[in-house]
Each structure stands twice: as C-alpha cells, then as structure tokens.
Amino acid sequence: MTNYIELLNNFETLGLQKVKELFPLALDNSDINNQALINLLTNLTSEEIKARDKRAKEINISISNFPYKKTIKDFDFDFQPSLNRNKIMDLMTLRFIENTENIVFLGLPGTGKTMLSCCIGIEAASNRVSTYFIHCNTLLIDLKKAKYENKLDRRLKQYCKYRLLIIDEFGFLPLNKDDANLLFQLISARYESKSTIITTNIPFSKWGESLNDSVIATAILDRLLHHSHVIQIDGPSYRTKDINIE
Hints:
The protein is of the alpha/beta class. Helix content is about 55%, strand content about 10%.
C-alpha cells in the first residue's frame, strides 16, 4: 500500500470525509513537495488512529467491571502444570466468541480461575468485544431486585447484550430455587447467541444440590455445556504458594 492510499484510508477511519474529498485537488494545486506532505500527514493521522484505539481499549476495559487488570503474561503456568497452556492460549485468540462457545473454569479456590477469566475478558474488551464481569452473587441480587421491581425482562436483555459475560464464583455462596430459576433464564436467553464464562468450585454432579433444584440444574448445564470448553484446574492455591508450612 502506498502512503497516499494509506493516508486516504486514515482520513476515512478518522471520519474526515470532506478532507478526503478535497485532498486530491489540494495536492494538484499545491506548490510544495507533495510526497513530503503525504508522508507527514500519513504519520500524523496514523498516530491519531493509534491514540484513539488506545483510548477505546482503556474505556472498554474500564466499563467491563474487572476486579483487576491482568494479562496472560502475568499468569504462572509453571505453578499449575495440570493446565494445558496451548489450550488457554487458543482461548486467548477469542475464537470461542466467534463460534459462540462458552468456557467453564472448574477448580478449588485460589487456583487461578478468576485470573484466567479476567485475562480472556480483558483481551476481548481490548479488541472491542462487549464484555462484562460480575460475581454470581451480585448478579443474582441484581436480577432479584429487577424481578421485584417488575424490570426483569429489561435486565435480562441488558445482560444478553454483552457478547461475553463472565460470571465469577458460581456456588461460592448458598443459592435457593429462586436463584436457580433466575440463572436458568439468563443462561437460556444467551444460549447459542452469546458466549459466557463461568468460574466455579462446584463439580457438575453437585450443581443440583447447590441450586436446590436438580431439574433446573440439569437444564442450565445442558445449555451451558452444549458448546463449551471445560477447563479443570487441579492444583494448589496461588494465595498460599509463598506460605511456608512446617
């Protein structure tokens, strides 16, 4: 691509339609070195595009509600040798979102489930994929409040707008049948249209017990796992790795 074509594309990207339209005529009527001008403007507009992209990434990450900002470079794979690094790096390509697939991170507390979900989510948000992170208990409190205010449909639609929804710590706190029903409605509404990541320390065989309703638990798992990547982490807690126990 020549600098001239790149410059015209930059004008297009920046929304400078009139400038793009008038620029060729301005060059024809100019007495200055056209190539030098083209190079200068190409460099300037390219820097503006980079700055806008950086701001957009920062905004997308900030509104996605992540508990912290971590990248996959921060994750210590050596501490969790049970993890398939190649599998995780493939998920980082975000192909699973394009394929409308889900991810379930299953493992004991402290094994890196939340961090991995954040790494993938931040990568998605950085690439302008609408993403939202929320603790399961906070999600259910919000849905119950919406139901009480007769706004449940509106709230479900809001959560269904995100191409990637991350629900952290399913089953960490006790749930009841009302919680189970609300979670089912959300998972069902997103089924085969949007991607969901769930982190949990509850084996699938115990979801019926955790939700106090085996029928709804089966229905949720049926939809969640139909197109899903299940990542089981069998290893120690990161929170205790620097503690010496004698």
